[in-house]
Specification:
Layout (H helix, E strand, L loop, with lengths): L8 H54 L10 E4 L2 E7 L12 E9 L2 E4 L2 E4 L6 E2 L12 E7 L3 E10 L12 E9 L8
Parallel strand pairs: 6-7
Antiparallel strand pairs: 1-2, 2-3, 3-4, 4-5, 7-8, 8-9
């Protein structure tokens, strides 16, 4: 008797089914990885921009100049401003030659003197932070005065600021307290 070594139809169906399960597993892993990579990239992008904004504020507040009659940090509509001595050789007694840096939020864009620093900020401004709980807005700030002019800032950003938070649209909140080292609020 001659033995036939052909593959039966049942064996072929089982092999194709197993191959389909393995392929489906690889596809699921790839989609999962892509989904989380996109969310991580967007989170990093928003975090970098918010960090840049806070560094910009910090740099100028550290250079702020003023006194009790000419405050180095002052409130403006939708933000605050910082007075910086623009001369290479500081002229602390002459405030007429100083430069003001205006930090404001308009819509979802955070500006300094008209230059867009970030377009990832959630809209809305709260100017009573940290005395009040942070509002669910993008720009919380408050002017503090404990002998040294300070401002507390909290920014809330999203990859797509006008859309709801989800894995593809992560929300980042960053904040800090900045104090002027070269200014006094004493009169």
């Amino acid at each position: 008797m001659k033995r036939n070594s052909a593959i039966t139809l049942l064996e072929l169906i089982i092999a194709i089914s197993l191959l389909g399960v393995v392929a489906l597993g690889f596809t699921s892993i790839q989609n999962f990885a892509r989904y989380h990579a996109i969310g991580s990239e967007r989170r990093a992008k928003v975090q970098n921009e918010l960090s840049y904004v806070l560094q910009h504020i910090s740099k100028n507040i550290q250079r702020a100049t003023g006194d009790g009659n000419n405050p180095p940090i002052a409130a403006v509509a939708n933000g605050f401003r910082v007075r910086v001595d623009a001369n290479p050789t500081p002229t602390p007694a002459n405030y007429g030659d100083d430069t003001w840096y205006n930090y404001t939020l308009s819509g979802n864009t955070f500006y300094c003197n008209g230059e867009a620093l970030s377009a990832y900020i959630v809209s809305g401004v709260n100017n009573s932070y940290p005395a009040s709980e942070p509002a669910n807005v993008g720009f919380n700030y408050g002017l503090l005065d404990s002998g040294v002019p300070c401002v507390a800032v909290m920014l809330r950003g999203r990859y797509s600021p006008s859309s709801a938070v989800n894995a593809d649209n992560p929300e980042i909140t960053m904040g800090s307290r900045f104090c002027s080292v070269s200014a006094s609020s004493n009169r």
